[in-house]
Structure formats: structure tokens, C-alpha cells
Amino acid sequence: MNPHQAEHAALIAQIAEIFRHCGYEGASLSRITERTGLGKGSLYHFFPGGKDAMAAAALAQVDDWFRRRIFQPLERDSAPGAINGMWDAVDEYFLSGQRICLMGAFALDGTRDRFTDAIGAYFTRWISALQRALERAGVDGPAAGELAEDTVAGIQGALTLARALNDNGQFVRSARRLRGRLARYL
Amino acid sequence: MNPHQAEHAALIAQIAEIFRHCGYEGASLSRITERTGLGKGSLYHFFPGGKDAMAAAALAQVDDWFRRRIFQPLERDSAPGAINGMWDAVDEYFLSGQRICLMGAFALDGTRDRFTDAIGAYFTRWISALQRALERAGVDGPAAGELAEDTVAGIQGALTLARALNDNGQFVRSARRLRGRLARYL
DNA sequence: GTCTATACAGCGATAGAC
DNA sequence: GTCTATCGCTGTATAGAC
User: Which residue, of A3, B107, B141, B149, has the greatest Cβ tally within 10 A?
Assistant: First the structure.
């Protein structure tokens, strides 16, 4: 990644953080200009498609991070190591529960309909990558699928609960128990 | 409940549905007037506090429903029956995954800060009511608390996943497994 | 690339007739 | 109670100077 691309990625990451905090509708362009320090002219220079394109870029960046750090290792590497790596990456990415999942947040309201494909692809791949890793670890097909669904759903639910109760510890404890449950199969 | 109160409750339920579908920011007054058939004058007659008061009333109605159908039975009745009743009520309320949880949706974005107390009280009471029912059923304290947290988080995550994948079956399957997991302790 | 100025639609909210 | 008209503001988006 050249410096130019890196700056652009940093900008997208900043915008993604605003979407996470305010939601799609709540993330106004004035908030985005304020938090990024860029005028509207600059923003529309980088994202000719406007706010919709900014959100799409944010989702694509999230997907890319998970693809490289979680999905591909789950599909490729030895299962126990990849699954342990998944839990470390999850904890790192969600900052131990301080940060929510942009895909999950967008999925819950009307924003979903703007980004159906990106959101669906992300969760589908996460579940199927985890399922296949569990199968390689010896879990039989149906059980592996159920375990993968329960795990991904459990992470989303833990993020919701942590924010609802304003307690990051909630996420850390939930994640530890989900991790322990998977570990019994490895 | 007299007819006047019943009409008012039906109006709040209609408004709640709009918030569920569009989120707080996305639920504009023009959408609300359109879907309810009431002009802005009427809406502000019923809710002098405006949109904020409409959302607060919606959350209060949700809380009331769960209190009567889930929290109080869990706190009062025999544990196995109350827990079975909880699962039936959950499935009924969320329409087998077609409907999301307003509390959970509001918790995820900046809307949370407007309704911190209502959202926090709802989840706190759900978890503690379930925990105490499990304790009465013979599960020891810490395990009951963990199980209650995992269950409520699991329901929220299943709702997120069902909407993200646009597949109600996802919720039904997840809920059935969560139910089975609790049943092993009863 | 970045800014300021601006277009115009939609927002939440209010007033007042009926 | 319900409506229409309208307020002031903010929303997204664009134009054009630099």
C-alpha cells in the first residue's frame, strides 16, 4: 500500500468510526467534516457518490479486514490455530466491546436495504469459514454449522448487550465463554 | 384499559413499528404521519414532547409488555413453566425473527444516549429475572448469571443475524438451540 | 485537492382555524 | 382533536474560485 492509499484508508477508517457511533442517518456530513477536518469539497472529491459511497467504502474496509485477519485463516490454516487467532482478532477489532460491528448496526434498521449484499456476504462468509474450520477439526457437518451460527450470533449479541448496559466487561465475559465453548471441540 | 387508552396504545404500537423499521433518525415525522394517518397537529396533541416523547412511549410500551409477559412470571412463577413461557413469548413477540428488538436497535447507535436508562433497565431486569428463575431451578448463582447473560445476548444476536441474512429461519433455529440449552438445566 | 458559497429539499416543531 | 400553513434549521449535494 502506497502512502496515498494509506491516507485514504485512514480517512475511511475515521468515517467508519462516525457511522459506528451515530448510525447511517445520524452521521451527517457536517459531523463528518468536523471529525475528519476535511471540507465538503474534499469529501466529495474522494467520494463522488456522496454519503452512500462513504458508507459503502467503510463496509468494504471492514470486510477486507475480516477477510484477511479472520476468514482466510479460517479457510486455509490449521483449525485450532485459526480459531484461536479469530478470537484474538475479534477482541482486538471490537476493542474488547467498546466498538460495535458496523455490519450488525446497519443490518438492524432501514440502512440494511442500501447494503444488503455487503452485509449478507460478510456474515455468510464468517459463518461458513468458521463452520469449515470446525469440520476440519473433526466436528461433524450439522453440528459445525450450528456452532458457527451460534458463535457469530453470540458475538453480535454480546456487542449489543455491552452497549446497552454500557459495560465492556459484559462483552469480554461473553466472548470468553463463547471461546471456551468452541475450544471443547478442538 | 378503557377504549381511549386502547386506541392510544394502538397508536404507540404503530409508531414503535416505524422506529423498528427505520431507526430513530430514519423515522421522520412525515413517515409517521403517513403510516399512522394522523396529521402533525394530532401527533403533537398526543405527544407534546415531540418525536423524543414518541420514542420514549414506544420503549415504555415494549418494557411493559416484557414485564407482564416475561419478567414478572420469571420472578414469580415456578421456574420451568416460566422459562418455557419466556420462549413462547419471545417467539411471539419477535414474530419468529421478522421483528427486531427496539431496545437493541436503539442501543447500537447514538440513540442510546437519549434513552440510556430505559434500555439499561430493560436488559438488566431481563437478565436478573432469568438468573433468579434458573437459581430457583437449582442452577448455582454464578452459572445461572452466565447462562442468563448468554441467553439474552444470544437472542439479540440471533435477531441481528436473521435480519442481516434476511432469513427468519436463522432466528427460529438459534432460538430453539438456546431454548434446548436452558432446558438441560431444568 | 481544498475551500466558501449556495441550492433546494426535508427536518422537527409551532400556530391557529375549524 | 384534526387539519393546513408556515417557521427556522439542517440535511445532502453542487458550483466554482483558488
Answer: B107
